[in-house]
Amino acid sequence: MKIFQIAGFLGSGKTTALIKIAKELTNRGERIAIIVNDIGEVAVDGKIIEDYGLDAKEIASGCICCQVSGSFIETLSILHDSFNPDIVIVEPTGVAAPNIVKDVADSIKSIKSGALIKVQHAPILTIVDSSRIELLLKAVKRLVEKQIKEADIIGINKIDISNEDLITSTEKFVKNLNPQSRIIRISAKTGDGLSEIIEEILNGH
Amino acid sequence: MRIKPLTNIRDKEAHREIDGLGKFGIKLVFQSNNQRSKNQILYFVNQLLLRISEKCFAQGADLIGHIKIHLETSAGHIGASLVQFNEEANIIGDIDEINDIKIIKLTLNVIVHGIWDSAVAEESKIAIEEVCTETNLGFKYEK
Question: How many Å apart are CA A161 and CA A159, to the nearest integer?
């Protein structure tokens, strides 16, 4: 079971990207499970995902990297024992720290046998909204930087509505923070750039 | 097997950032006094998202995390989100071009930066009431 995490601040385009990536992986014959985490008491993303014919497990009322990590572990364990998907796509809240989510996922055990389940991790994708990067860095700089630093792949999103100057400056900014990462220009809305991410999910580690 | 939450998670400090975010979520059922068309529903959704953002910014919010809606009608479902102040909502999904929509089930999730949960809740509820009055929709809270 491989876990693919789509991180990024609120409003960055995680859910839109998730829907397109999940549909494409399903078309390629992969057995997909989806876990979406909303920080609020009322979850919306799961409903939107289900409108696209995809089944999503919702975890609400807290963040899976800390407040509701137990629910996350339990959901992963149940998915493993009951469905054993090839890939679990995880959309944490927009305030989650990607490495902590990864650590939490490493601690899952089979509910049936109690044995530790060895999971693989696909590269962590952090999506960055290039169209409002300046606003984000004013208001939530530390969190956005953390999500960028902990990514393996960084999707510079909304290239369909952003301008070239903003896209280029966002690329420079993320490259400076995380020189090891692979940076891909994407539009979650139009699907541009997502095929490269799908190849990384299937072949990267 | 009993599953316990992890207690030895490193670097919880990232979540101090949460303190800057105000959150509100609610499920609502709207009943229209008149039959509604697709365009009227889309207008209502746009107005609701915009009004909530305006109210929150007037109280000191400086960034929209997201304002998201999932809406169910007899003519289909749509999702809508607003992440940028003073811009139109992004709408995905579709509802049919029929004119007999009378009941709308709506799930709303608001997260903004710069004001606290109670202020987000209050401003969101005021916005809901205003937009419902303007569009002649009654509503009741589900949660």
Answer: 6
Q: What is the pTM of this model?
A: 0.89
Establish if B2 belongs to a structural domain. no
Higher pLDDT, residue A40 or B25: B25
**CATH at A69:** 3.40.50.300
CA distance A5 to A68: 17
User: What CA–CA distance (Å, rounded) separates B122 from B128?
Assistant: 10
Report pLDDT digits (tens) over A179-202: 999 999 999 999 999 999 999 999
A45, A104, A135 member nearest B63 (Cβ)? A135
- Whether residues A70 and B10 touch (CB distance < 8 A) is answered with no
Report yes or no on B10 lying in a domain.
Answer: no
Looking at the domain assignment, is residue B117 inside a domain?
yes
Q: How are beta strands B137-141 and B21-36 bridged, if at all?
A: antiparallel
